């Protein structure tokens, strides 16, 4: 009888404990009541450096001759840039390719025309006002390829912080409007995530290489963009 009495007394406690545990699991599985929005912040900055790609490409009958020609051209380009004040560590090879140039006749037979070598350099220009000089010096030294010019900000941290603040404000404003339209009361943020930064862009950038006698380059303005996603508590 005593064992039975103890069992009877413990059963309600076990049942109550199980109900509490199941209740907590059920609550944890329920989706949060909230509003999820994204916000974008953009800050325009004056670029203080540029990245330019210059290089040489050519064809020779023998692979060794093509390699030697490319090496001589790139060495001349590097020397010209160093004389202009570009530091050696601001110039690096981004691609180096060697391949056969062939022509097919009417019978579909390949005929070797020679070997082509392509050697490209990435040049960091610390003074955006001298980008034109850098391009002119490189082409005068033998560069026959000039790639894309990208204007950037060397230290983006302060601009990113400002853009991040603007992005959060924009997200909060959007959530407030959605809450008002839905008859909800907006609460605190439940979670926040930085989902990306925009691709660097320069406004009003231009390049004129007429005759290669000079290059007029306008840096324009650089956009620093931050995007955030925030979930706010929202209840009726």
Q: Sketch the topology as an H/E string, one letter per element.
A: HEEHEEHEHEEEEE
How many alpha or pi helices?
4
Helix content: 25-40%
**Largest sheet data:** 4 strands, antiparallel
- List low-confidence stretches: 10-31, 203-214
Gross CATH architecture of the largest domain: 2-Layer Sandwich
Q: What structural class should be given to the helix and strand makeup?
A: alpha+beta
Please state the average pLDDT score: 83
Task: Write up this protein.
- It is a single chain.
- By secondary structure, the protein is α+β, with helices and mostly antiparallel strands.
- It has two domains: 31-46 and 156-235, Protein of unknown function (DUF541), domain 1 (Translation Initiation Factor IF3, 2-Layer Sandwich); 49-152, Alpha-Beta Plaits.
- Helix content is 36%, strand content 42%.
- It contains four helices and ten strands.
- The chain has helices at 2-29, 63-84, 131-140, 157-182; strands at residues 34-45, 49-60, 91-104, 110-125, 145-152, 185-197, 201-203, 206-208, 216-218, 221-235.
- Strands 1, 6, 7 and 10 form a four-stranded antiparallel sheet that branches. Strands 3-4-2-5 form a four-stranded antiparallel sheet, covered by helices on one side. It has a two-stranded antiparallel sheet with strand order 8-9.
- β8 and β9 form a beta hairpin.
- α2 runs antiparallel to α3 (131-140).
- It starts with a helix and ends with a strand.
